[in-house]
Each structure stands twice: as C-alpha cells, then as structure tokens.
Amino acid sequence: MSAQSKQNKILLVEDEDSLAVGLEYNLTEEGYRVTRARDGREALDLFESEQFDLIILDIMLPYMDGFQVAEKIRQKSPRIPILILTARTSVSDRIHGLSLGADDYLLKPFHLQELLLRVKGMLKRKTWYEEEAEAGQKVYRFGDNKVDFSNLSCRAGDREFQLTPREAMVLKYLIDHKGQIVSRQDLLENVWQISGEIETRTVDNFIARLRKYFEPQPSRPIYIKSVRSAGYIFSDEKVKPGRKYRRKRK
C-alpha cells in the first residue's frame, strides 16, 4: 500500500451487490478510499457533494444508465478519469462510451488484477497534468488548431472544446514523437500502461476521435496519418512525396 493510494478516492457505481462488495474490498486493500453508489441518480448526487479522483462506472444501472451518468459527469469535470465496466460486448457500445468521455473500459467478466492495474495507471496520469502545467511546452499549434495541455482546452478553427485526459495523452504522445511511426503497441504500453499484446480497437477509436476534432477532412487526415501495418505518424505539415518515415526508437 503506497502513500499515494491512501490519498485517492474512488466512486464505485455498481448495482450488483456480489461484484460491488468484492471490488470495494480489494480496492480498499490496495489503499484506496471507496464510496459506492447503487444507481445512476445516487452516483450523480455523490459526485456533486464529494471530491473523487476516479470513477468506476457500470453501464446497466437503475434509474439512469452509465452512459447518461458519464455524459453528465464529463460536462462538469473534463479531467476526472472514468473507467467503464460493462457486460455488453458490441463495438458500438464501446465506441458510444468512449465518445461520451470515458477513458477506458473493461468487459465483464474481467480479471481483478487487470482492473487494479488499469486503476493504478489512470491515477498515475493525474500527476501528468501538474507536471505539464509546470514544465515543457504547454501550448501546441498545428494548422488551425491550438491545444493547451495545461488545462486540456482546444481550438480548431472557430470551435472551442476540451479533450478528455486520455485523448490528451494520446495526442501528446504522438506530438512528442512527431515524424516517427508510433505503433498501437507503443500507445497501449505508454498511454494505457497495458500489454501491447492485448487485442483492442480502443486505440483506433481514440485516433478517430482526434481526427474528428482536428483534421479538416477526417477521412483524409493530414496531421495524424495511418501507416499500413505499422501504426500512426503525426506531422504538423503535409508529408512531401517520397519522404520516408522514421520508426520510433525504443
């Protein structure tokens, strides 16, 4: 149990008692302070009245489903990490949850150790905002786009919006390796802190969202390009014909 984990407070939103009791016990054993909500309305009431560092959110809830809860929370707090738990296996549900601002998602049934690792990784990234605000380049411009990594605010032409923490991490990683091929494995291991061997379309979904935000024509990207069978490459200007890409150094 670390001093860091003692300070982290988690809102667990789960109506299934047998699962919730086990999760609450194991999270508490890891040193986290856990508050449980049994339905969507209670989750929002607790969110309004208390401060949390992370939310673990089931989708199928009484009164208000997890998608609605995630959307309302994200409107008020663009930075708080949200981990969705769901028994739904369809890609459309996953995309919908991510599009509402969830940072990550686990399918039921899941391995406890995987959930604990996801939680640990998501909470680690909270320090990234503070470090980014104090050091390095806070504001990055490319094309008609402007990204302020200190508060996650963005401008694309005349549109203003905010990135979620995970979106910002993906974009920042691509920018930090500008002109180099970044594989899905690189992003999974360095942004999600999970094994690059895990099959997931989550990376592709996040890339699609970033293109929708920043590309003049998302279907024909000029900033975040795909490199067939290799990954993605960020460039703040169009790549000239015949130019060779550099692979990211390990």
Order of H and E elements:
HEHEHEHEHEHHEEEEHEHHEEE
Shape: globular
As for the number of domains, it is: 2
Please state the average pLDDT score: 84
Instruction: Report the strand count.
Output: 13
The CATH C-level name of the largest domain is Alpha Beta
Largest sheet: 5 strands, parallel
Order of adjacent strands in the largest pleated sheet: 2-1-3-4-5
Helix percentage: 40-55%
What low-confidence regions span 5 or more consecutive residues with pLDDT below 50? Answer: none
**CATH topology-level fold name of the largest domain:** Rossmann fold
Strand residues, percent: 15-25%
If helices are DSSP runs of H or I spanning 4 or more residues, what is the number of helices? 10
Radius of gyration: 19 Å
CATH architecture of the largest domain: 3-Layer(aba) Sandwich
Oligomer: single chain
What is the gist of this entry?
This protein has 250 residues and is an alpha/beta fold.
Structure description:
- The protein is of the alpha/beta class.
- It folds into 2 domains: 3-124, Response regulator (Rossmann fold), CATH 3.40.50.2300; 129-247, Winged helix-like DNA-binding domain superfamily/Winged helix DNA-binding domain (Arc Repressor Mutant, subunit A), CATH 1.10.10.
- 41% of the residues lie in helices and 21% in strands.
- It is built from 10 helices and 13 strands.
- The strands form 4 sheets. A 5-stranded parallel sheet has the order 2-1-3-4-5, sandwiched between helices. The chain has a 4-stranded antiparallel sheet with strand order 6-7-8-9, with no helix packed on it. A two-stranded parallel sheet has the order 10-13.
- It is globular, with a radius of gyration of 19 Å.
